[in-house]
Amino acid sequence: MVKICCIGAGYVGGPTMAMIAFKCPEIEVVVVDISVSRINAWNSDRLPIFEPGLEEVVRVCRGKNLFFSSDVEKHVAEAEIVFVSVNTPTKTRGLGAGKAADLTYWESAARMIADVSKSDKIVVEKSTVPVKTAEAIEKILTHNNKGIHFQILSNPEFLAEGTAIEDLEKPDRVLIGGRETAEGQKAVAALKAVYAHWVPDDRIITMNLWSAELSKLAANAFLAQRISSVNAMSALCEATGADVAEVAYAVGKDSRIGPRFLNASVGFGGSCFQKDILNLVYICECNGLSDVANYWKQVVHINDYQKSRFVNRVVSSMFNTVSGKKIAVLGFAFKKDTGDTRETAAIDVCHGLLGDKAQLSIYDPQVTEDQIRRDLAMNKFDWDHPQHLLPSSPTASKQISVVWDAYEATKNAHGVCILTEWDEFKNLDYDKIYQNMEKPAFVFDGRNVVDAEKLRKIGFIVYSVGKPLDPWIKDLPAAPSS
Ligand SMILES: NC(=O)C1=CN([C@@H]2O[C@H](COP(=O)(O)OP(=O)(O)OC[C@H]3O[C@@H](n4cnc5c(N)ncnc54)[C@H](O)[C@@H]3O)[C@@H](O)[C@H]2O)C=CC1
Ligand SMILES: O=C(O)[C@H]1O[C@H](OP(=O)(O)OP(=O)(O)OC[C@H]2O[C@@H](n3ccc(=O)[nH]c3=O)[C@H](O)[C@@H]2O)[C@H](O)[C@@H](O)[C@@H]1O
């Protein structure tokens, strides 16, 4: 029986390995992590991450050919293929701080693999890493020269949260990069044979290591760039009376552009887009390509602009101050169908409103109070470190309350900010919400999920991103200078 071990039982390691175990009953898969609480959760009825369809897949395989363990060294030593899917956060200190990838966790995993290995292994980069990381990893793996051979492969992951199981089951493509030597190609073939259990041959793309590493950063940069492009248009739509949904529809009808990923929003979030673009920017700078670096930097800049533009709309609409006013925040996760809050636009929007002394009442169907308080107390970039290293007692803020119901959140509020596109926000009883709010009652829809005209008929003043403006808002200042 082939043995696979995956280091890192997070959003990528957990679901990816569960899918391999599900599709390959003759392969034994062990997912290991230094976080004992995370491993315990994977072995319990309440998995550590919320992902539609994941529970069913785990239930079928767990205890048969899928195992979760904190005995990292033992399982790494026994495996023939070792995936590494650990955190690669943005560096907060030292050389490249605020841009470069922090490879601390990767390096410590690689050193451990080198130390405990007694047989040849294929080591697979599953984490998103800077291009040329495989070269550094090779050096670490071979440093103690025990006569063991390691082949490094790059096999970046393209799943999106909320649709991880669907994406893993029917991937657009699986990328495998390897050395162009006979041993390298043998390793590529071995990993390809795993995916070939369920992925059609024409969707498994093999290439050189550096192309595979860079393709992952490039794909995320292109995706994020589409969102910043449509968000930049949304500002112009508001200034001109055009409707961003209509513009995006017209643009997306061009088959060369395509319709997906053109939804204007309060800004993209998630653990990777910003981190990976900053990393790309840093690599460009290191290679003397400052014009290319500046081009990609703008994608992050427009995203920050979009978030502050939203806060500005809220504050300026409400008589230029939200001090002491209750603002309901509906949705805190970075997108619907996940409980993940990493880099969610909600953090920056809440910080903006708290800075203007608002009283926030926050509701999200999947995010706990502890997580929300922790996120709002944390420094930039600190969130992307292993869970057990994160601060455990977030500072309580009297300006924040977290509730478990949208009606409770909006009761006696002056304004409502919709920051995640959860389906339930489309069908709330807005008549009831209006009755229980202070007047004038405002709705700021950062995800364009509500029917603005219907809400205006009820009596709300409504702002929707990139849509023709409410007469109340029309003559107010639109954006902060940047
Ligand atoms: N979250 C996502 O949707 C995607 C993430 N990625 C990339 O995958 C990588 C992992 O991301 P996530 O799974 O989201 O992170 P995560 O934070 O959910 O999981 C990483 C896990 O690695 C563990 N870990 C760290 N160092 C370790 C070590 N030395 N030994 C054992 N365990 C260790 C941590 O305790 C943590 O549980 C990142 O590079 C990310 O950029 C790629 C595609 C999608
Ligand atoms: O490397 C990663 O981590 C992953 O990053 C993204 O996946 P994810 O961040 O999970 O979710 P997306 O669906 O891409 O959404 C990212 C953010 O963009 C926002 N978004 C997305 C699409 C859109 O049209 N408009 C928009 O504002 C979402 O609300 C969310 O905040 C990519 O889609 C994955 O392919 C990639 O593997």
Automatic annotation (TrEMBL):
Taxonomic superkingdom: Eukaryota
Catalytic residues as annotated in Swiss-Prot or TrEMBL: 272
Enzyme class at the top of the EC tree: oxidoreductase
Oxidoreductase keyword on record: yes
Gene Ontology molecular function: NAD binding; UDP-glucose 6-dehydrogenase activity
GO cellular component, one term: nucleus
Domain UDP-glucose/GDP-mannose dehydrogenase C-terminal: 328-452
InterPro entries: 6-PGluconate_DH-like_C_sf, NAD(P)-bd_dom_sf, UDP-Glc/GDP-Man, UDP-Glc/GDP-Man_DH_C, UDP-Glc/GDP-Man_DH_C_sf, UDP-Glc/GDP-Man_DH_dimer, UDP-Glc/GDP-Man_DH_N, UDPglc_DH_euk
Pathway: Nucleotide-sugar biosynthesis; UDP-alpha-D-glucuronate biosynthesis; UDP-alpha-D-glucuronate from UDP-alpha-D-glucose: step 1/1
Gene3D superfamilies: Cytochrome c1, transmembrane anchor, C-terminal, NAD(P)-binding Rossmann-like Domain
Binding site for NAD(+): 8-13, 33, 38, 86-90, 127-128, 161, 272-275, 342
Catalytic function, reaction form: UDP-alpha-D-glucose + 2 NAD(+) + H2O = UDP-alpha-D-glucuronate + 2 NADH + 3 H(+)
NAD listed as a keyword: yes
Biological process, per Gene Ontology: glycosaminoglycan biosynthetic process; UDP-glucuronate biosynthetic process
Pfam families according to UniProt: UDPG_MGDP_dh, UDPG_MGDP_dh_C, UDPG_MGDP_dh_N
Keyword entries, A-Z: NAD, Oxidoreductase
EC number: 1.1.1.22
Similarity field: Belongs to the UDP-glucose/GDP-mannose dehydrogenase family.
Name of the protein described by the UniProt record: UDP-glucose 6-dehydrogenase
Taxonomic source organism: Picea sitchensis (Sitka spruce)
